[in-house]
Design a protein that fits this description.
Layout: E1 2-3, H1 6-9, E2 23-24, H2 39-51, H3 56-70, H4 74-79, H5 90-99, E3 107-111, H6 127-140, H7 146-155, E4 158-162, H8 173-181, H9 184-194, E5 198-202, H10 207-217, E6 224-227, H11 235-246, H12 270-275, H13 284-289, H14 293-301
Parallel strand pairs: 3-4, 3-5, 5-6
Antiparallel strand pairs: 1-2
Helix pairs in contact: 2-3, 3-6, 6-11, 9-10
C-alpha cells in the first residue's frame, strides 16, 4: 500500500520532489515510521538506493528489519553499532569465518554473501545466525548463544561459505548474477577438497550455481538440499527445513567418504572364494558351540554318513 499524503511523503528518508519518492507502509506492522535525516545522510541513502535499483524507503525498511531480526539473539544487542557499515575489513570477515571452519566439513551451508549492513553470521548478529540457531533449537531442544553456538556448529562439522566474497545483497539483475557465477569455480574447488556429506543452499536462486559447482567437482547432487533465505514469510520454512537436517544423527548404511569403491570390480575374487570351499551360515546357537572352522569340521566328521547322504548309490553300502 502506498501512502500519498504529501506531508508524509516529505518525511521520507531521502525525499526529492523531482524524483517522486514513495513511502511504503509495512503491512505486518500496520504503522508508518517516519525518520528525518540530515542532507548529507539523505544524499547517501538516495545514492545507495539508486545503485541497488530500489527506493530509499525500501532500503531503510530492509536495514531496519535486518537489525530487528538480529536482536533476537541477546548477544547481538552488544554487537549493534550506531553506524551500520563495516565493522571489519573484508579480510577480517574471512579470517573470522576461517576461525570457525571445522576440521572435517560434514554440512556445508552455501550462502550468497554476507549482508551489506555490517552484520555477519560469524559475528553472531545476523538474521541468518538467529534463524539457524532457531532451527537448531527446534531440532535439539536447546542451544547456546553467540560464539558458543558457533563453536557448537564447528564441532558438529557445520560451516557457512558465502559464494561472493563481498556483500552483493543490494545489487540486482545482471551484476548480482555475475558476482555469483564468477565464483562457481572457487566453490567447486572447496567441494572437491572438503567432500561434505550435505550441501545446503540458502537461497533458491543459488541452486543452479551450486549444482554447476557440484558437477565440476565430480560430486553427485543427491547430497544437495535447497532452502529459502530466512527473511519475512520464508523464515519458518528455512527453520523447519534446516531443523530436519540438524536433528540427532540416525544410524544408516551410507559408507563414509574415506571408503572409496569407485575402482572396485564385481566378482573379482568369486572364483578363488568358490574353490576355497563351501560357505555355510550357522545359526547363532550353533555358532556359540562351534566357533571355528576346525570345530565345525571335527563335529561333522564324527557323524556317520552313508552314500545316500552324499548323493551316492545305495548299492555302495
Amino acid at each position: 500500500m502506498k501512502i500519498t499524503d504529501d506531508p508524509l511523503r516529505k518525511e521520507s528518508p531521502a525525499y526529492r520532489p523531482d524524483d517522486g519518492w514513495d513511502v511504503l507502509e509495512p503491512q505486518p506492522m500496520q504503522v508508518v515510521l517516519s525518520v528525518r535525516f540530515d542532507a548529507r545522510s539523505a544524499r547517501r541513502i538516495a545514492e545507495l538506493a539508486r545503485l541497488s535499483a530500489g527506493t530509499p524507503s525500501r532500503l531503510i525498511r530492509d536495514w531496519t528489519l535486518e537489525r530487528l531480526d538480529a536482536l533476537e539473539s541477546a548477544d547481538a544487542v552488544r554487537a549493534v553499532r550506531k553506524d551500520p557499515a563495516g565493522y571489519l575489513a573484508d579480510g577480517d570477515f574471512e579470517a573470522l569465518r576461517d576461525r570457525y571452519r571445522p576440521t572435517r566439513i560434514e554440512m556445508l551451508l552455501v550462502g550468497e554473501s554476507r549482508p551489506a549492513g555490517g552484520t555477519f553470521f560469524y559475528l553472531a548478529n545476523s538474521n541468518l545466525f538467529a534463524a539457524t540457531r532457531e532451527a537448531y533449537i527446534a531440532a535439539n531442544g536447546t542451544a547456546p548463544r553467540g560464539a558458543e553456538f558457533l563453536e557448537l556448529l564447528q564441532r558438529g562439522g557445520v560451516w557457512l561459505y558465502d559464494i561472493a566474497p563481498a556483500p552483493i545483497n543490494r545489487l540486482s539483475g545482471r551484476p548480482r548474477r555475475e558476482a555469483v557465477e564468477g565464483r562457481v569455480a572457487d566453490l567447486a574447488v572447496l567441494l572437491r577438497e572438503a567432500k561434505p556429506r550435505r550441501v545446503v543452499v540458502i537461497k533458491r536462486s543459488l541452486e543452479p550455481a551450486v549444482r554447476s559447482a557440484l558437477e565440476t567437482a565430480g560430486i553427485g547432487d543427491d547430497r544437495l538440499h535447497v532452502l529459502p533465505f530466512p527473511l519475512y514469510q520464508w523464515r519458518a520454512e528455512y527453520v523447519a527445513g534446516l531443523a530436519r537436517l540438524l536433528g540427532p544423527k540416525k544410524p544408516d548404511d551410507e559408507p563414509r567418504e574415506e571408503y572409496d569403491f569407485r575402482g572396485g570390480r564385481r566378482g573379482r575374487h568369486s572364483r578363488e572364494f568358490a574353490e576355497a570351499g563351501a560357505v555355510v551360515r550357522l545359526d547363532p546357537d550353533v555358532a556359540i558351540r562351534y566357533p571355528t572352522s576346525d570345530a565345525v569340521n571335527e563335529a561333522l566328521r564324527s557323524i556317520p554318513v552313508t552314500p545316500a547322504d552324499i548323493g551316492g548309490d545305495p548299492g555302495d553300502l
